[in-house]
Protein 1
Amino acid sequence: MPQPPRETAVQTMPTGLTGRQQFPHRHLLAISALMPWEISFLLDEAEHWVGVNRAHSRKHDDRLGGLTQINAFFENSTRTLLSFEIAGKRLGADVVNMHAAQSSVKKGETLIDTAMTLNAMRADVIVIRHGSSGAVRLIADKVSCPVLNAGDGWHEHPTQGLLDALTIRRRKGSIAGLVVAICGDVLHSRVARSNILCLGSLGAQVRVIAPPTLMPAAIEQMSVTPFTDMDAGLEGADVVMMLRLQNERMDGAFIPSPREYHMLYGLTPERLARAKPDALVMHPGPMNRGVEISSIVADHPERSAITEQVEMGVAVRMACLDVLTRAARGVEGWA
Amino acid sequence: MTLAIVNAQLADPDADTVMPGSILIDGDAIVAAGDIAIPLDAERIDAGGLIVAPGIIDLGVFRTDKPAFHFGGITRAALMPDQAAPLDDVGLIRQATRAGKPDFWVHPIAAATRGLKGVELAEIGMMQAAGARAVGTGRQWIADSGVMLRVLSYASALGLTVIAHAEDGGLTGKAVATSGETATRLGLSAAPACAEAMAIARDIMLARETGAAIHFRLVTTAGGFALIRAAKADGLHVTCGISPAYLFLSDIAVTDFRTFAHLSPPLRSEDDRLAAIQAVADGTIDVITSSHDPRGPEDKRLPFADSSPGMAGAETLLALSLNLVREGHLTMNALMRLLSAHPARILGVQAGTFGAGQAADIIFIDPDTPWRVDSARMAAAAGNTPFDKVPVQGRVRRLMKGGQFR
């Protein structure tokens, strides 16, 4: 029984979408599940929240008032958890955080049982991070409320892809036609996968730059151009997106040492000069200064968009929480 | 007591085509088969024109599962040593040989090394005396080439075939998928397909050195088949098997993190799948096994990388394999060689053909009956099949073990 070839979707933007048609998904699990116009819709929604967040007066909007948001983080996180918590609170939700370190997961409870427990507590939206690819989807199939993937293993981190796209769109005006170089540990990076899909879907030419030991097999099948030579990969780039190198991968397993990595793949001012003069520098954080990125580049006032990414993160997450709960809140056209 | 199965279409592994005929059985053994005269006093069993074939001998199952074996026409199962307590001890082997009675035969595969750890030789000779029919490395590759050399030479002197797992453990590590587009998109830990050929290449060298007989239980890549083909051409005692999953599915089946498609070795690329079909057709592959490994939700309803590999395959083994006949890759007789005669030879059991004196383990096959695989309604101990909802054809209507219907 031969299997059908992988879908190569011909995507034509439908017109006149209203209400739920603009985002007909119950969960946000992966960028791979989204059409380009659905991504753009979320970015447009997020623009509104950027304005609200920047207002110097009250940032509160109580549209999620009375709803319970559970942030279930099975893997340690500071900034993503904080970002989701702030996003939920600014929308008026009752936000509860569950850390794996304190949970019964350590006592051997299965992931499904944990999901059923959260569900029984009548959460209205659940934000999940898990160290295993596909784990968030597994939970989403078992609960009756919307689930937001805050990162699953090496698979996807969709809100990171969206916030990076929003940052680039605001800085560059548009994403179509830009050359984006994603550089670092692509193999183990969910951020890289979500960005490849998100930016590629919006029309960017995506390159990935990685040491051969950290380059996934057949990555060119995801419509990217792989480079192992960083200088070549940066040539003429509009955006340089650095990835974090995990400590445990630095000591001989995948690369010989942090200093050798810095020599070959660190973003220095000299290297950055290969990219376009106005190239944007991005990093999902937390940074290893002096390893994948030098401080001069990271702190460059015009070129670095790193703190802006953090700001966009809150706006994107507010947009996602708002959109995903519209059906439950009975918003007209979404119920 | 003499039995005669009459009005049958005989799928004799020793013949070239399916022929009408009869089988004469005395006690638990076959007396004669083919276009034979039936004694007047024989009890006649009308096969009603069904295909009659030797019972399937499943070379490498992880669990004895009577309802699934009965459904699938399996009369003998070689039990893998990977049990809760690895089969590395005489008592465990003796116990395993009794596990199928009286419904089917269990032929345990003795662990080659203590605890399947790949370090010290297990008591292979004593386990053979207790009923072990082969020696196996289990799910694991023996990393130490010196240990593997000694396993092969020792087993060879006892006349036992070594059943090996063909994946270089250094390359596979904790991988749960084959390197390629699917694993990359899903973010799954993956190993290159050449891990298989590397393990096979080493073990063929050791088989050549020792003259031992080695059977690679599951070979699934073009690189692996090329090595097996060359080793056979050199006259080495090298055989290999495959399970239907690798013939009819590629790694695309893993998309959406379907843990029922989490197998070991992992599903391969479409090119390797096509190479597997070719290797079945040209005789490179000797055995088709179910690799039956029923796993409940506690092992499968987990994130992909945390789930246990394996599929419940016993009841779909024949129906899926019949696709090979229907698509013209094999004759029915050749298929029964892969399912019965060759596994019998590797295990050294008097079964698997219609020759005089062979065990009267016989199945009646209705080759065209359509049915649909349904993971929720399987006979097996668990419904973990990657073929859920797939339409298939072919059912076993009756099953005889040792001259008695079961």
Note: Chain B touches chain A through 30 residues (CB under 8 Å).
Protein 2
Amino acid sequence: MFKSFEPNKIFAITSKAPKYVLFLFIVVLTIGLTEALILSPEDYKQSHAVRIMYVHVPSAWISLGIFSFLALFSVGSFIFKNKNFSLISKSLAPSGFVFNIIALVTGAIWGKPTWGTWWAWDARITSMLILALFYALYLLAWRIYGDKEQVIKITSIIAILGAVNVPITKFSVDWWNTLHQSASVNVLSNTSIHISMLIPLGIMTAAFTLFSLLIFLMKYNTELIKVKNKGLDRL
Amino acid sequence: MINELISMNGYGSYVWSAFSFTLISFASLYFVTMLQLSKEQTRFVSKFGSLNEEKARAARLQNINREILSNTSKI
């Protein structure tokens, strides 16, 4: 099954896809920004400060989602000894880390007008900070041990430990009393957010997903060419 | 209208700084990734160019090498 995803077979697609994804991202982002900054209504309580939600929430969702995939592929590369899986997880990390930082910074900016403080050591915010540390450790491990054999073992351990933090981050607002509000958008139960705000949130999430796909494809192509460069050295 | 959009009832500095930070982060990540990709592509092309005819022929047998070369013909 894994053979159909071999780099030699999919490079023809991954090398051409970025320009189409970039075009789609610019279109969706333009629509999303227009909706988020101009067309969507202000909140009766938070006024225009609510617009920060349109960058903060998708960033947090995507950083958590990317880490879940990263952990999955890391475990896969460790169990199946599949080098392609480790290249995929390595390529996912940079955009996940940047989305995590965006979620933390925009959360702090949103916190000041709504809570009166830039930072609070509550469960959600602290667990997001811990996730950023796991991302940083993961990227650092690749940088330090990149050429050594133990890199897959080390990065897999970091990814598995970090993956434990993902459900803690997600459910922290339900398990503990936090300053951070509980989830307004739920897949399995009622969503408390109004449709006029849900639409721009959905469009911005789509735009951010496209951006993470774009960075992933570019990074994956870079990693494949790096491997091929080493191959040329051995010829 | 424009003033209202900029000030946003006094929340403009928060909203615009959050959006600006996000977009600047996107642009930075995109350009850094792009730079790394084109650096590797350039390295590949120069390494490929230094191969002798026999080795170059052997390398060209792999689809992926041909794809990399076709994508970097503009560099």
Note: The first helix of chain B runs from residue 2 to 7.
